[in-house]
Write a structure and sequence with these properties.
The chain is of the alpha+beta class and about 750 residues long. The chain is built from 26 helices and 28 strands. The strands form 5 sheets. The chain has an 8-stranded mixed β-barrel with strand order 19-20-22-23-24-25-26-27. A 6-stranded antiparallel β-sheet has the order 8-7-6-11-10-9. The longest helix has about 30 residues. The radius of gyration is 42 Å and the shape is elongated. About 35% of the residues are buried.
Length: about 750
């Protein structure tokens, strides 16, 4: 057969009949001896491609059978139609087969063209000699294997190898075709696949894993095989013949092996076994070497692809699956069974940063790896464990349908995780928190389960270390509420929904107004007025604190200007505005305050800035720079909620502040609690020592007023005197404060 003549003929045939491929096959069902087109180019992969190949072989065998009529036959597989015509010459029996889309039926004209092409192919094939014909078929075999391996993915690799082993076995008319890989860790040759698959395999399988140090010279030589190896029945292969007999029951075989070599390393062998004796031609061995080279090349590409995939789906430090892999795996489980009994546990180790800061990141990494190992060892093999980031891990438990069962497992995990570990000579122990989400209770997708477990984890962290919390309806509604707040808050400031209320501060001795504290409220379109405590944390999380803070500061300055301009009212001596940590350390905050004072014509002493102890201590150096800038402007500074933070006397001495506002938690029980009384007394004495003014917050009982005056705290604010009031009501109150106080 002359490929230069056959291939153009097949191409013309395919184009004339709108076929996807045209193949000349022998009746023995081996690989095509000549081809045009490709099923892979039509998009077939894996099992679909195997089905196509099998259909082509079956139809070709049918039309070329000795008792078959000399006529075309057709068949179909899902999506495709096949037609074949017998092709018989003096030294070839087979057929010519076409494939095209199923929606296009074969016509009489197609059959006529196919019959003419088969006769022309037969004429060309008859003109060649048998030896030359075999060599051309070997060339076609190598080309066929190359086309099969071209561009296959890692997922397509196993079925493609299985298909090629079958094709090779049929082509060379052998009884077994196999692929073995060398395993350096096992120091053995491992059977990867073979055709045909054995129906009965001994246990243990003498052919499955064969050590290199065996007394069998054939398998012993596989480790470093460099050239093709041929073994025929005889005394020199006795051990090999005995091993094959034990594994397959065949008493005597001939064998050919070609090595798979990568950079001077033998990765395995491609082998062929014929029951009884067989002579292998030199041209056949050359073809096998070329095929082995193709297999080696695709192995290298698949290994590289698998390594890239592993890196994309696994955490580099611990080797555990990452978030992407975890979500994909859980999604696949829920897709298979939407009611699968699974629970997701979100695990967070507390204060890992301390380990990194004190012992170094190397010890911190070792600790994370140890935690990963503990988690993996603490669950069953079919449970999933993944690392998301930093000290965050997730676990998916199978067969868990209730929060109670999941919490039982979670507490056991906590016991294992919090046990002290020896890490690089250091004993490291960390507490942890776990949030739980159960499929079907409040979650139905992998993303929902992960998100809900995260919400439960945040609740667990609020409650303290070594805590387990399951996501429930209460957390669910809080999550929806928070999502609604976040969505609406992004436009609330610009849409004019924010309001300022002002709570008066009084001199307890005279009843005079000493200040107004500006408190932000949100006029929600549906929920009405919402206090700051319900949304300020969300504002900070979505990075709107600076925008809101500047609006509050300017609105407070504007209102103060209105009160100063009113002829019938006495304006407040000072308006105080609460400032967040983000605003306080921003580089232009002092300049913004100066701009507001200038724009609305206020003296600096008329504006007060309130900060919390925790805000001060978070970034002390940056905060000090801002406070000193405010002091240079002449703005008064107050520390809010004093006594609940962790400032020391040395820090307080550094801070340029004017007022200490005593937290309401110490004031509410002042008359009856000796401890609260002692704390308030100490704060007042401390303020006197530093020349500061004290203001008591949350005064709601007359007895607290008497106690405060007795202790020397003369200023206060609270519901006893006045709740926070809208700006318009403050305007009316400023016009007649005595009447208002009398009503209270």
């Amino acid at each position: 057969m002359d490929p230069e003549t056959i291939h153009p003929l097949l191409k013309s045939l395919g184009e004339a009949t709108s076929a996807l491929s045209a193949d000349v096959l022998a009746s023995d069902g081996s690989v095509p001896v000549a081809s045009w087109g490709s099923a892979t180019e039509a998009g077939l992969r894996g099992a679909e491609l195997t089905t196509m190949r099998d259909a082509i072989r079956e139809l070709t065998s049918r039309v070329s059978a000795p008792d078959a009529a000399d006529a075309s036959a057709q068949t179909s597989i899902p999506g495709y139609g096949l037609i074949a015509h017998p092709l018989r010459t003096s030294n070839f029996v087979g057929g010519l087969c076409l494939v095209r889309a199923e929606q296009e039926p074969w016509t009489d004209n197609d059959r006529t063209i196919l019959q003419m092409a088969a006769r022309l192919c037969g004429s060309v094939m008859d003109s060649g000699d048998t030896a030359r014909e075999h060599e051309r078929r070997l060339d076609s075999l190598v080309s066929y294997v190359a086309s099969e391996l071209m561009s296959i993915s890692a997922a397509e690799h196993p079925p493609t190898i299985a298909r090629i082993l079958e094709d090779l076995g049929r082509f060379f008319d052998v009884d077994v075709c196999y692929l073995r890989y060398n395993d350096p860790e096992l120091r053995a040759s491992v059977l990867v696949d073979q055709w045909p698959r054995r129906t009965e395999i001994p246990d243990p399988d003498p052919l499955g894993v064969v050590p290199w140090d065996t007394n069998d010279p054939v398998f012993r030589g596989i480790q470093n095989l460099r050239e093709p190896y041929i073994a025929r029945p005889g005394e020199e292969t006795t051990n090999y013949q005995e091993r094959v007999h034990a594994g397959s029951g065949v008493p005597e075989v001939s064998m050919a092996m070609v090595p798979l070599i990568t950079e001077q390393t033998t990765r395995g062998v491609l082998g062929f076994v014929h029951f009884g004796d067989r002579v292998w031609r030199r041209s056949e061995v050359h073809a096998l070497k070329a095929i082995a080279s193709l297999l080696t090349q695709v192995d290298g590409r698949v290994i590289a692809e698998e390594q890239l995939r592993h890196r994309a789906y696994h955490d580099e430090l611990t080797g555990l699956p990452n978030r992407r892999a975890f979500v994909d795996d859980v999604t696949a489980i829920l897709k298979e069974d939407s009611e699968a009994q699974v629970a997701v546990l979100f695990v967070d180790m507390d204060r890992l940063k301390t380990v990194n800061d004190v012992l170094g990141h190397a010890i911190g990494d070792m600790f994370i790896k140890a935690v990963a190992k503990k988690l993996r060892e603490s669950v069953r093999p079919d449970d999933l464990v993944a690392r998301l980031a930093g000290d965050e891990f997730v676990v998916m438990l199978r067969g868990v349908s209730t929060s109670e069962n999941a919490e039982h497992v979670a507490r056991r995990l906590l016991d294992n995780l919090t046990h002290p570990l020896d890490i690089g000579g250091h004993v490291v122990s960390r507490s942890a928190c776990i949030g739980i989400s159960i499929n079907g209770e409040t979650s139905s997708t992998a993303d929902e389960m992960l998100r809900n477990a995260d919400v439960a984890l945040l609740e667990a962290k609020k409650r303290g270390g070594d805590t387990v919390v399951s996501f429930n309806d209460d957390l669910h509604w809080r999550l929806l509420d928070r999502a609604d707040l976040e969505f609406r808050l992004r436009s609330a400031i610009g849409d004019g929904e924010m309001r300022l209320h002002f709570q008066p501060e009084f001199d307890l001795r005279s009843g005079d107004l000493t200040a107004l504290e500006a408190l932000v409220r949100w006029e929600h379109p549906e929920r009405g007025l919402i206090s700051a405590g319900a949304f300020v944390s969300v504002i900070e999380e979505i990075n709107l604190a600076a925008d809101l803070g500047r609006w509050v500061l300017e609105e407070a300055c504007r209102r103060l200007a209105d009160w100063k301009a009113a002829a019938d009212a006495k304006p407040p001596p000072v308006v105080r505005v609460n400032i967040s940590a983000g605003e306080l350390i921003s580089t232009d905050f002092v300049g913004f305050v100066g701009t507001m004072l200038s724009r609305y014509g206020h003296a600096p002493k008329e504006l007060g800035i309130e900060i919390t102890e925790s805000t001060v201590m978070r970034d002390l150096e940056d905060v000090l720079a801002t406070l000193r800038g405010l002091r240079r402007l002449g703005v008064t500074i107050a520390i809010d909620d004093f006594g609940t933070g962790y400032s020391s006397l040395s820090h307080l001495k550094q801070l340029p502040v004017d007022v200490l506002k005593i937290d309401r938690s110490f004031v509410s029980g002042l008359a009856n609690d000796s401890g609260d009384r002692a704390i308030v007394s100490a704060i007042v004495r401390l303020a006197e020592a530093f020349g500061l003014t004290t203001v008591a917050e949350g005064v709601e009982d007359p007895s607290a007023v008497a106690a405060l005056l007795e202790l020397g705290c003369h200023r206060a604010q609270g519901f006893l005197m006045s709740e926070p009031l809208p700006a318009d009501e403050i305007s009316r109150w400023l016009a007649s404060p005595r009447d208002y106080l009398g009503s209270k």
